[in-house]
Specification:
This protein has 141 residues and is mostly helical. It is 79% helix and 0% strand. The protein has one domain (17-135).
Length: 141
Amino acid sequence: MSKMIGVETTMKVNTQPQGKMVAYWSVTLLLAAAIMLSGIGQLMQFGGNLDLVTNLGYPLYILTILGIWKVLGAVSLVVPGLPRLKEWVHAGIFFLMTGAALSHAFANDYGDYGFNLILPLSYAALNIFSWALRPAKSRLH
């Protein structure tokens, strides 16, 4: 009976980090894909990006700046190592997405059913989950 308890305890210890790692990579890959696609869309000026930016009163060149930063940030999230860079990327994504939501709110540009607020805030939430679930080796000491 005691061997059974010992085996069960060992199994639980080994499966918890694996589940956390799966959750981390699931959230992080989803975040990286969303940020990458958004950045590419901005660089190529797809999907209403021109109207979106001009409605907010920003110059069109902001699409190039944001697109480049998003693509670089998405790549750095999935590249192994570089914990300090990943911290900066997470901070940048958080500020970018909350800033986007606030820009839309201040411009009274909520979109259909608040989409222009919900989407960037969803990305910010994914970003927070990715940061919180990151492995110990990716944390700054």
